[in-house]
Every structure is written in structure tokens, then in C-alpha cells.
Amino acid sequence: MKILVTGAAGFIGFHLCKVLLEKGHDVVGLDNINDYYDVELKHARLSQLGIDKKKSTHFNNPVNSERYKDKFLFLRMHLEDRTALPQLFQKEKFEIVCNMAAQAGVRYSLENPDTYVDSNVVGFLNVLECCRHEGIKNLIYASSSSVYGDSSKVPFTENEQVDKPISLYAATKKSNELMAHTYSHLYGIMTTGLRFFTVYGPWGRPDMALFLFTEAILKGKSIEVFNNGLLERDFTYIDDIVGGVMKVIESDLNSDSKGDSLYKVYNIGNGQPVKLTDFIEVIEKILDKKAIKNMMPMQPGDVTTTWADLGNLKQDFDYSPNTGISVGVRAFIEWYRNYYHL
């Protein structure tokens, strides 16, 4: 199939592109390569897909992969570009669109709200409009566990009311689900929202806990432990996340669906929340070095617990992530040491 992956230089988008290419699909990757975190890491991910950094510095300039030949095309572009994105859709005639692009981060949304509206709301609307006008019948997009807010009803189930977000990032992700429902209802587009739960693993984002903790511990610096460590997260390994996305891509589950049944939302998590203090202990054990903990209060927009109910994912796709935290953390640390030549 010919598949568009937005956010191709991002953590999840990169891994998804890699698996799609390994399975023989034709992939067009799109990313604006913004400076929210180290752009060199984004270029390094793209280099794994055969994209030369020197050839991908200009917006809207297609670059063929040196590694995957004519199977992978990369473009640097903003999702909210109302001229370039429709032209891309018109030219490439995608069969499936995977929207993994978004301005990520809960705390950053407190300081830079405009960025979240531009990318996550305006950009997503642009994607929906392109799907509508070019007859794309299958849109898969990244939502987030953050839509559940600070719900005390665990595990989180997809039929739970999620109309009380506690961060702008969460609000934009919930808006994506609402917008997707509208386009499924009005225009017959099959939309599948995937609520990802705390994704981690090799090539991860530098603003995520595992990256921050590993870096600080190795450098002998203190780590910030929020809510005095009284937090739980449903940490989900990157390969399990991509495995779930692939199940949706390759499924014909909804091929005969009509009306509101075209709209689906699924949790993708590990289904086993881990205490933050236990998570830190796993990192310490693998690094063979103790962390210097700076105990901090709860941060605005943060939540105490995330925990995915995987019943619907298991029922519809016979899929349940199962990578243990020790295995996943070890894989990340091995990548980290190799990437930074430690």
C-alpha cells in the first residue's frame, strides 16, 4: 500500500516508517523538524531510513531514501500548510494516512499554547480536509492517554466520559477525536484514534522521564521526582505501540462499516501501571548507579495514574502489548550508550 506517515522524524513516526518499509509498503514521510527538542536526533532517526540530512533541509522539497530506494519519500512540511499538504495528497494518492505528528508534551503546553493549536488542531483539520477531498477512506491518528485527565476510575476504558482535560495538550487530543467523529459521520471516512500510554524505548524523546533520568544519573546530577514519587504510569514499549498500529493498518475489520461505526478509538498501553519509584529502581539497577532524587510537588497539568484497559484492542485485533519494563528500559539504555558513544 501507499501510506502517508506524518511526524516521520518523531519517535513513534520514525519507528512506524521503519516497520512499514521492512514490510514492503510505499511510504511518504512528512515532518516539520521543529526545535522542540534536539533536531540532530530527528535527523539521526531519518538517517536510519536513508535520508541524508543535507538533502532534507528545505521545506516542501521531496527527498528519496538512499536506503529504501524508491520505497520511501521524505518531505519537510508543516501540517497546517493549506497549500502544500493538499498538493501532496493530490499527487500521491494515498491509500492510508497515519497521522503521528503532533506538538507533544504536557508541561510545554502551559508555556506555548499557540504551538499546540497550530499543529494539533489546525494541522489535524488540514489532514481531515485532505482525506475528505482526495477520497482517503482510512485515517489512523495518534491520540493520548492524557484525554482521561486525572480520572480515579481505573483502568481507563474507551467508553469513559473524557470531557475534563487538565492540560491544553490533552484538550487538543480530545478535539482530534471529536473532529474525527464528525468527518467519519459526514464523509464516510474510517477514522481510528489510538490513545497511546507513556511510550518509551530506543530513539525516544529527550523530554521524557526515561531519557531525562538516564542522562542525569550517568552525569551524577539529580533527577526531579514529581509528586514525591507518588505517580504511576502505564509505560508502553515502542515496539508494542508500533505493533498495535500495524494491526490496525493491516486489519479489514471496518471495511464494511458505515456511519458512526466508521469511528473507532482504542487504548494502546501495557495494561500494567508501574510506580515511578519502581521505574527509577529499574534504571538504577541497569546503570549500576544510584539516582540523586530531588523530590518535587505535583506539576500543573500532570496526572497521578495512567492505566489502560486493553479489552477492546484484544477483542478486535487479538493484540496485547507485553514487553516488560526491565526489557524495555535495558533496550533504551543500550541505545543511549551507543548513540552518545558512552
TrEMBL record:
Organismal lineage: Bacteria, Pseudomonadati, Bacteroidota, Flavobacteriia, Flavobacteriales
One Pfam family cited in the UniProt record for this chain: Epimerase
Protein name, entry field: NAD-dependent epimerase/dehydratase family protein
Occurrences of domain NAD-dependent epimerase/dehydratase (ranges): 3-269
InterPro entries recorded: Epimerase_deHydtase, NAD(P)-bd_dom_sf
Gene3D superfamilies tied to this protein: NAD(P)-binding Rossmann-like Domain
SUPFAM superfamilies for this protein: NAD(P)-binding Rossmann-fold domains
Organism: Muriicola soli
Keywords, alphabetical: NAD
